[in-house]
């Protein structure tokens, strides 16, 4: 955080009012550096690590440009486009943009795969000002002529390096080619390797580069720990102990199967946990993320799908249960904590046979930390746990909105308003049909603490991650406020949003 206010940087009053309501008055370094140029209409290349404030850095000039120009989008012709590599990141970005757009009466929607495209077609057909999209589904809709990009005035590429890692650059190139060459273009990326530099040379006109908080630069508020354990049993005990504190924590695994298995084991031990990985449907992702952002489940067990784009306020601990395969994954995983000036701890649990590999990984990530040999009762582990959360019986740790829970309640509905929905289908009990604002319950309600004591169990703790203004479920129409937890997108990106 700097001492520079958004107003001093030239952000319009319509938008500073929204930011002030969200408690945001002073800009972060990457915002201070880029906003004068982006607000002036220049092409900008911004380099900075995850959590440095890039989303707001490009959202403000995008909305300001469209809002001050006036006008409305025609059917199938958005006026602004943001490209993101994952659906979670697309939904996060949309949650930041939507309340800003509402200040000018602009509409936003998300477009990504894994869900029905019907609602996305409907939103585009009504006309939407700002589209936040993943490349694959957007290209599908372009080929089907549901959307044309020839009216786009400003285009943003976010996490361009990750899109390169996922092999998306050919599609990104085709999409960028379909936008007007005279439009403003902003590219944000941690690195310029894997072909990202070619995008810069081809599509940005005389860009101004700003480099703040690159991936390899240290995060002062992030403390790294390397814990050596004697074997698999000791590792299991240490991981369960680390999961037992009151605050939010994310545990990273290498495989989908192991992530699902660990979440079940922790829940059975009285520590409510949810999993996040590529095998989950969009509806299940939404439910689990909403539970983690709410008060019922304080532990998220995830594969690297959550290393980019999932931002939940107040994550105080990241645990690399399985050390990642390469150093960039380590940095992105770790970036789920110590975001936007908050403090956080990052722990890597290392088996004897993983020590050399982990040492090399940390060296590449420019992380210097002395390993410590521990067990679950070690002082180092106890300090990282903090206050132990109350035991929660597994029967009370069911994620709200799951099909099993609904069958037990005798309900035939497929989901609830707080969980979002696969494919953007309208649902009863808190979720409105396309084009209608929802007034659902938002995130999951808090589970009550159990009186019985226990060792390293629990999983509840400090709240964090506000719901959308008016308590609307994610993916619903917006009427102003912002979502602190911005990874829920239950509609599958199909609904346009306009200030009412």
From TrEMBL:
Report the GO molecular function annotations.
helicase activity
Sorted alphabetically, which keywords does the UniProt record give?
ATP-binding, Helicase, Hydrolase, Nucleotide-binding
Q: Where is the composition biased (Polar residues)?
A: 438-451
Iron-sulfur as UniProt keyword: no
Task: Name all Helicase C-terminal domain ranges.
Answer: 237-389
What segments bear the compositional bias annotation Gly residues?
415-424, 455-468
Q: Which PROSITE patterns match?
A: HELICASE_ATP_BIND_1, HELICASE_CTER
Protein name, entry field? ATP-dependent RNA helicase RhlE
């Amino acid at each position: 955080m700097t001492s520079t206010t958004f107003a001093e940087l030239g952000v319009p009053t319509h938008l500073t009012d929204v930011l002030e309501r969200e408690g945001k008055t002073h800009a972060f370094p990457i915002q201070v550096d880029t906003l004068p140029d982006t607000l002036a209409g220049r092409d900008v290349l911004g380099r900075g690590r995850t959590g440095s404030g890039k989303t707001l850095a490009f959202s403000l000039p995008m909305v300001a440009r469209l809002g001050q120009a006036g006008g409305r989008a025609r059917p199938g012709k958005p006026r602004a486009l943001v490209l993101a590599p994952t659906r979670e990141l697309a939904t996060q970005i949309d949650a930041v943009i939507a309340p800003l757009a509402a200040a000018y009466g602009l509409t936003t929607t998300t477009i990504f795969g894994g869900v029905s495209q019907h609602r996305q077609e409907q939103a585009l057909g009504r006309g939407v000002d700002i589209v936040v999209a993943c490349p694959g589904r957007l290209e599908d809709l372009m080929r089907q002529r549901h959307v044309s990009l020839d009216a786009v005035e400003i285009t943003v590429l976010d996490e361009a390096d990750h899109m390169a890692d996922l092999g998306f650059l050919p599609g990104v190139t085709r999409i960028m080619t379909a936008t007007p060459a005279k439009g403003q273009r902003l590219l944000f990326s941690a690195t310029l390797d894997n072909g990202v530099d070619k995008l810069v040379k081809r599509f940005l006109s005389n860009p101004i580069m700003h480099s703040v908080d690159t991936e390899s630069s240290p995060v002062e508020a992030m403390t790294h720990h390397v814990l050596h354990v004697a074997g698999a049993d000791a590792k299991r005990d240490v991981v369960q102990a680390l999961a037992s504190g009151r605050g939010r924590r994310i545990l990273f695994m290498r495989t989908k199967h192991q992530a699902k298995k660990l979440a079940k084991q922790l829940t059975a031990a009285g520590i409510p946990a949810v999993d996040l990985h590529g095998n989950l449907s969009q509806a299940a992702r939404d439910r689990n993320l909403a539970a983690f952002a709410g008060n019922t489940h304080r532990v998220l067990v995830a594969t690297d799908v959550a290393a980019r784009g999932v931002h939940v306020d107040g994550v105080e601990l990241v645990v690399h249960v399985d050390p990642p395969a390469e150093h960039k994954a380590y940095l992105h995983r770790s970036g789920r904590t110590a975001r936007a000036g908050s403090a956080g701890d990052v722990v890597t649990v290392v088996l004897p046979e993983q020590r050399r590999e982990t040492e090399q990984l940390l060296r590449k990530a420019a992380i210097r930390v002395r390993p410590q040999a521990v067990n679950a009762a070690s002082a180092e582990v106890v300090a990282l746990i903090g206050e132990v959360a109350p035991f929660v019986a597994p029967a009370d740790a069911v994620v709200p909105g799951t099909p099993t829970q609904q069958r037990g309640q005798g309900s035939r509905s497929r989901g609830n308003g707080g969980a979002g929905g696969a494919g953007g289908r309208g649902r009863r009990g808190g979720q409105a049909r396309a084009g209608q604002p929802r007034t659902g319950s938002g995130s999951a309600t808090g589970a009550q603490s159990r009186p019985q004591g226990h060792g390293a169990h629990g999983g509840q703790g400090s709240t964090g991650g506000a719901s959308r203004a008016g308590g609307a479920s994610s993916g619903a129409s917006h009427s102003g406020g912002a979502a602190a937890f911005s990874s829920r997108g239950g509609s599958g990106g199909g609904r346009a949003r306009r200030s009412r």
